[in-house]
Amino acid sequence: MRSRIFLAGCLLIFLSTLGGVSAVRAAISMDHTRGYILLHVNSLGAAWYVLPTKTERFYIKNGDAAYSALRNFGLGITDADLWQIPIGIQQPAGVMDNDQDGLADKLEEALGTNNTNTDSDNDGYSDLDELNNSYNPLNSTKLTINTELVDRLKGYILLQVESRGEAWYVNPADGKRYYMADGDWAYEIMRLKSLGINDDIAQIPLYDGVLQCDQSIDCMIGSIEVFTDFEGVVVSDISLFGQQVQVWSKLEYSATSVASRYPWTWTTLRQTVNGVEQENVVGTGQHCRSNHYTDLIDVLSEVKLGNYSTETPSTMLCESFGTE
């Protein structure tokens, strides 16, 4: 692998221990896997999220990529409706729990409970006990569980539209919602709430959409590995001839055109030199291809490590656009 790589546009697995994993019985229809997270046991536990709306699977490389990817499939929900779905308590080991009540601080923040008081509503019952017994820890009332709503939302990623977009996964197996505060949290949910599956997973088609990876390099790499289209933004800092250059480049990857001339495109969205905006390069970029799709993975891996170069690797063919 090259120690330094190019960044075009201007100057230029998830692995599981399988603990707690159930097995998918061969007799179960692949349609019945919708909304589940599957671990391919014959492929070192590679994780896949099966969309709840149609039987297509999406590759989850690791926690960071998972959080970015799963939010692509998120469904907005109001706080009133969210409270009608029972809460599952599942959190990574070692997370901060200021009041030592069994509820992590981040979970309490999402719920609105007090992370310095084990009994937020001071009714004599701990927040954890109330949640485990379907009571609201904020006001001592019995939670009203809407079974019809739960059944309809099993397997979905829910985003709180009236708050800060907190993400919850409704586990199809138990109908409970599990908080995904960040990548580590998502990793834990996937590891413990997934189903093991053998090579029958090949019966489930790959995701046939364009994934929005935002700035997640892991999301981009994971998408390339399983030939999934994506768009993302690569941000880099380059020291060149004593100048500090910062670049924001949009990367568009088309897996369906791997055999065509230019499977991916870099476009400069923004560039600064020593903090001064360089508007003349906005919209310029390069169309690129390579004989080996893994070359782009190598490029992105080096970008993640902070290794940059304005040189185009010899294995790549690129054509500039937007320049005079």
How are the elements arranged and paired?
Blueprint: E1 22-23, E2 37-40, E3 46-50, E4 57-60, H1 63-70, E5 74-77, H2 79-82, H3 105-111, H4 127-132, H5 147-153, E6 157-160, E7 167-170, E8 177-180, H6 183-192, E9 195-197, E10 210-214, H7 217-225, E11 229-240, E12 243-253, E13 264-273, E14 276-277, E15 285-290, H8 294-305, E16 316-321
Parallel strand pairs: 1-9, 2-9, 5-6, 10-11
Antiparallel strand pairs: 2-3, 3-4, 6-7, 7-8, 11-12, 12-13, 13-14, 13-15, 15-16
Helix pairs in contact: 1-6, 1-7, 7-8
Describe the structure.
The chain has helices spanning 63-70, 79-82, 105-111, 127-132, 147-153, 183-192, 217-225, 294-305, and strands at 22-23, 37-40, 46-50, 57-60, 74-77, 157-160, 167-170, 177-180, 195-197, 210-214, 229-240, 243-253, 264-273, 276-277, 285-290, 316-321. It is an alpha+beta fold and 324 residues long. The longest helix is centred in the C-terminal third of the chain and has 12 residues, at 294-305. The chain has 2 domains: 22-200, no CATH class; 210-321, no CATH class. Helix 1 (63-70) crosses helix 6 (183-192) and helix 7 runs antiparallel to helix 8 (294-305). The radius of gyration is 23 Å and the shape is globular. The strands form 3 sheets. Strands 10, 11, 12, 13, 14, 15 and 16 form a 7-stranded mixed β-sheet that branches. Helix content is 19%, strand content 27%. It starts with 21 loop residues before the first strand and ends with a strand.
